[in-house]
Structure formats: C-alpha cells, structure tokens
C-alpha cells in the first residue's frame, strides 16, 4: 500500500510539473514583441492616421508631435502608441529641439512621451542618437538611453545615458556600471 501511494504521488508530481511547464512555455510565446506590435497596429480598430498633437505650457514653450500612425490604448484612452514620429519642441527663447523615432508612446493627459528605436534628437549643432528617449515636459527633462551617441562639432561621446534638463540645458552623461567609462573623442 505504501509503494502504491508513492507511485501515485510520483505520477501526480510529474503531471503537475508537466502542466506548469506547458502553461509557462505557452505564456512566454504569447508575449508581444515590438515586431508583433507593428502587425497589431495595422489590424486595430483604434487606428489613427496622420496624428498631430500640440501642447503649450505656461512658460511659452510649444510641443508638437506628429506620427504617421497612432493607436489608442484600449485600456487607457490617454495613451496613444505611435509609429514614425517627428516631434518639435519650440522653446520660449526661440530655440528648437527636433526629435525623430520609429515608435513612441504618448500620454495626452500630461504630454509625457516615450520614443523608441532609431531615436534622433537635434538641438542647434548637437545631435543625440539612441534606442530610447523618455521625454517629460512636467519634469523638464529628456533621458536618452541604450546605444547613446552625442555629437557636436568638437566631440563625439558614447555613453549609456544622457539626461538633459530642457529648461537649463544642464546635461549629465554617464554609464550604468561604475567600472565602465564614458567614451569621449575630440573631432578637432
């Protein structure tokens, strides 16, 4: 009787383990990757074409974002997923910041925008490229990360992260790991 119970317990453990493995394996397959997201946009009923949003703040700055395609998040109507983005920040001091990227996530309530894939930022003679940009007009900052390259007529800088205060233009350039160094090359 004891051996029979052991066999039943062993069989139950094997069945439960197999079920856990099967459900976890299928769950991982169902996760949406950026490539799947691109296909989802085309099939969505929340699809918008030639999207344009404009916002002004109390300081006289203007933020304009344009995209070829937008998709409203069905769980939060303040969130718009964008494709092929061009954004322009017109600062009250007449300076302009241009931003381009393949994809983005725009919050219509607070104007925060996440740009991703092939991000390019141009400001005067400065150019920053990277894979990811978190732009917040409320915090007055831009955080560029992943494969970041900053260029101006004098320098080429490679780093993990560049943080820019939009208001003061103060810039922090750093690496995630203390043992790694920011790579600076003079172009003069």
Characterise this structure.
With about 190 residues, this protein is of the alpha+beta class. The chain has 2 domains: about 1-30; about 35-185, Sandwich (lipopolysaccharide transport protein A fold), CATH 2.60.450. It is about 20% helix and about 50% strand. It is built from 2 helices and 10 strands, in the order ααββββββββββ. It has helices at about 1-30, 35-45; strands at about 45-55, 60-70, 80-90, 95-105, 115-125, 125-135, 140-150, 155-165, 170-175, 185. A hairpin with a 4-residue loop joins strand 6 and strand 7. Residues about 25-45 have low confidence and may be disordered.
Distance between the termini: 86 Å
Topology, number of strands = 10
Rg, Å, rounded: 23 Å
CATH fold category name of the largest domain: lipopolysaccharide transport protein A fold
Output the helix-strand order: HHEEEEEEEEEE
**Count of individual helical segments:** 2
SS-based structural class?
Answer: alpha+beta
Q: What is the approximate shape?
A: globular
Give the amount of beta strand, in percent.
over 45%
Q: In terms of per-residue confidence, which ranges show pLDDT below 50 for 5 or more consecutive residues?
A: 25-44
Number of domains: 2
| CATH superfamily (homologous) name of the largest domain | Lipopolysaccharide (LPS) transport protein A like domain
The helix content, as a percent range, equals 10-25%
Largest sheet: 10 strands, antiparallel
CATH class group of the largest domain:
Mainly Beta
- Overall average pLDDT: 79
For the record, the CATH architecture of the largest domain stands as Sandwich
């Amino acid at each position: 009787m004891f051996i029979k119970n052991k066999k039943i317990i062993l069989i139950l453990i094997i069945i439960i383990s197999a079920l856990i493995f099967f459900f976890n394996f299928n769950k991982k397959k169902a996760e949406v990757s950026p490539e799947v997201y691109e296909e989802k946009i085309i099939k969505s009923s929340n699809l918008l074409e030639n999207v344009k949003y404009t916002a002004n703040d109390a300081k006289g700055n203007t933020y304009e974002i344009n995209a070829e395609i937008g998709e409203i998040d069905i769980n939060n109507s303040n969130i718009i997923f964008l494709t092929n983005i061009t954004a322009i920040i017109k600062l009250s001091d007449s300076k302009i910041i241009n931003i381009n990227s393949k994809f983005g996530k725009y919050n219509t309530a607070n104007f925060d925008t996440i740009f991703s894939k092939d991000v390019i930022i141009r400001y005067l003679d400065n150019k920053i490229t990277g894979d990811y940009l978190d732009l917040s007009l409320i915090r007055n900052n831009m955080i560029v990360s992943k494969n970041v390259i900053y260029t101006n007529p004098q320098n080429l800088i490679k780093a993990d992260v560049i943080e820019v205060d939009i208001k003061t233009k103060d810039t922090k350039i750093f690496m995630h790991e203390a043992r790694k160094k920011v790579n600076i090359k003079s172009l003069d």
